[in-house]
Amino acid sequence: MSENQDQAAIEMRGVSVGTMRDVSFIVVEDVNWTVLPGEFWVIAGQQHSGKSDFLMLTAGLMSPVRGSCQFFGRDTRTFGEAELAERLRVGLVFAGGQLFNHLTIRENVALPLQYHQNLTPDGAAREVQSLLELMELTPLADVTPANVAANWRQRAALARALILKPEVLLLDNPFRGLGGRHLQWWLRFLDQLWRGHEWSGGRPMTMVVTTDDLSRLTGWQNADRKFALLRDKKLIPLGSWRAVEATNDPVVKELLAVPVGATM
């Protein structure tokens, strides 16, 4: 990374977040939050707490109602075609994947390369195939998303977000509905990306993950991740996993509770 490691990857000051459908409807307000390069943040919150809209704003897909959001020192309100290179430094995995159903898994993963780097399908093929193999998606490469189980669609959405090798990866509730084997794969793979995966040249990746179920993250107890809570329109820093477990906040306790019949 060319920037000084002390420069924030993401910096919000006095930010109020609207919704994609109605920017005047505030779901999170007065956010003051800094994410340094190489940090891993987990933002927990109940359903409808504003997690998705918060990530959309973080990715520069919408502007703050109030305050400022900067991405590597650039105000996201000014993001346009001239700032495309800056925008492509962040990858976003949407809740539920949001793949294009008229394209195959291979075509979905290749799309960012074709759109942003003007590569032909043949020109993108080698890089796409390498990522499909890494993520165990090769057998499903030529199948459309509607004919692929949700576990694998979510993994394909991750591959699409990674194909341009972003420096920052945002993931909106990626663990919801995953079976135990797939969940463990995700926890392990995201940890490797954060620390510096061979596929990305060993470069550590900055990450922000949202979740409505902290009980699924017990495999991440011992690493230096930072946790925060979205509650009552506020972003509340919690600290380490140990601090999460020690808090008396009723919402955190609810999100830590293992759901009945959960597969771990």
Any descriptors?
264 residues, alpha/beta, Rossmann fold, 2 domains, 6-stranded mixed β-sheet, 4-stranded antiparallel β-sheet, 8 helices, 31% helix, globular, disordered C terminus
Describe the structure.
This protein is of the alpha/beta class and 264 residues long. The chain folds into two domains: 10-89 and 167-256, 3-Layer(aba) Sandwich (Rossmann fold), CATH 3.40.50; 101-165, no CATH class. 31% of the residues lie in helices and 21% in strands. The chain has helices spanning 51-58, 84-87, 105-117, 121-134, 150-162, 180-195, 241-246, 250-256; strands at 10-17, 28-35, 40-45, 66-71, 74-75, 90-93, 168-171, 206-211, 226-231, 234-239. A hairpin with a 2-residue loop joins strand 4 (66-71) and strand 5. The longest helix is centred in the last third of the chain and has 16 residues, at 180-195. The termini are far apart. Mean pLDDT is 89; it is low at 260-264.
Question: What's this, in brief?
Answer:
31% of the residues lie in helices and 21% in strands.
Please render the helix and strand layout as text.
Layout: E1 10-17, E2 28-35, E3 40-45, H1 51-58, E4 66-71, E5 74-75, H2 84-87, E6 90-93, H3 105-117, H4 121-134, H5 150-162, E7 168-171, H6 180-195, E8 206-211, E9 226-231, E10 234-239, H7 241-246, H8 250-256
Parallel strand pairs: 3-8, 3-9, 6-7, 7-8
Antiparallel strand pairs: 1-2, 1-4, 4-5, 9-10
